[in-house]
Structures are given as C-alpha cells and as structure tokens.
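lol forgot to send this yesterday, sorry. struct tokens for the thing we talked abt
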C-alpha cells in the first residue's frame, strides 16, 4: 500500500504547494491499544539513513519499499516494543503506478526516485 503522511484522500487535488513522499511502508505488528489505528506504525528513519534532503513542491518523491517487523519483550511489568526494517526494495516503477492508481489526482505530478537505504 502506498502511504502518504499526513494521509490525503484519494480524491484530493494537489495545490502545487506540496511535495509528496511515497513508497510502500509495511510493518508486521500485533494489535496494540496505544496505536493510532490499533496497530503499531512505522516512523522514519534509522540514523544511518538520515541526511539533509530538499523536496520541491509540485513533485512526488519515491523513498522506497520498506518491510519491517516488531518484537515484544516483557520483563516484569515492563513491556518493550521495537521494530526493525527487514527488507528494503527499490520498486520505483510498480510503486509509482500503484500511487497513481490509488490517488488519480496525483498522476500529473512528476515523480523522482529518491530511494533511501540503498
């Protein structure tokens, strides 16, 4: 699934004032009471991937396809949850096509492969 943060509705039209960052971000996680939609979400980014980047308005930037899983450790009454990225793929063409199919109003935007985690 292509995910845009903050999420937009499929019918929303870009104003030209936004830059869109997209990719497939999937995390295998059990349900959690403290999560926004009942499941843990993925945040960015591991320190080794952090770097300054410029994203110009009126464009969509592909960041990559990320698959992660969670681990839970319980010690006494303390529960620790962590997530780790397991695979990173560059599937720019297919993910871009999926983005445009899910968000047709973005199809006029130029896209750029800005794969992180190479």
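and heres what i got for the seq, position by position
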């Amino acid at each position: 699934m292509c995910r845009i943060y903050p999420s937009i509705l499929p019918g929303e039209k870009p104003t030209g004032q936004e830059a869109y960052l997209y990719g497939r971000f999937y995390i295998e996680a059990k349900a959690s009471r403290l999560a926004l939609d009942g499941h843990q979400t993925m945040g960015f980014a591991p320190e080794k991937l952090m770097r300054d980047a410029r994203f110009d308005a009126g464009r969509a930037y592909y960041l990559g396809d990320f698959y992660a899983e969670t681990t839970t450790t319980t010690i006494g009454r303390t529960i620790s949850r962590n997530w780790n990225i397991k695979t990173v793929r560059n599937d720019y063409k297919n993910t871009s096509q999926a983005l445009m199919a899910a968000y047709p109003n973005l199809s006029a935007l130029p896209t750029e492969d800005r794969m992180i985690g190479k």
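The beta strands are 19-28, 59-75, 78-89, 111-113. anyway ping me if u want another try
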